[in-house]
Design a protein that fits this description.
The protein is mostly helical. Helices cover about 50% and strands about 5% of the residues. It is globular, with a radius of gyration of 17 Å.
Amino acid sequence: DWDGTVLKTQNELHAPAEAEVLARYGVIVDPLEISKKYAGHSTRKVFKELAPECDPDQLVKEKWEIIKDFLEHNTPEPIEYIVRLIEQLDATGFTVVVASASPRWYIEKSLDKTIPRQFIKPQNGEPSTFKLKECFGSLYVSAEDVPNPKPAPDVFLAAAKLAGVHPKDCLVIGDGKSDVHGG
């Protein structure tokens, strides 16, 4: 997964943006309740269920505009120790692939963000910051790349294929029910 697993963005960015969009249309909902029920699901599903009288595609567009603006001026913080875990998995020969419900542009923009090196094991002489791309390269799959979003297993199956690994030999790390079900 990506949001809420690698980056602190589910409760800090996605759910608040969704709540802000819903409030524009008179639907008041606590962002934490959105996270509790919908973390890892498609944003379209969130809006279809919470604002059935609205055009979900328009609401999704508004949400991603809020997030795009946020990313222009801010860098999401990684989940403590997850980058170290990914580094350890990589060092022991595991291929790590991001499998996210988020759009490709968002994953790419997030991978390009510079974060403090405190989140990984520092090496002598290394700069004090690094890009998440250093951990993942271009190994990521978006829900846009598959026919069915989470909780369907499609994004995880595509990640396994990208890694060149049989799905039965994979481990899914995620923070939501949809990750567990899809995995």
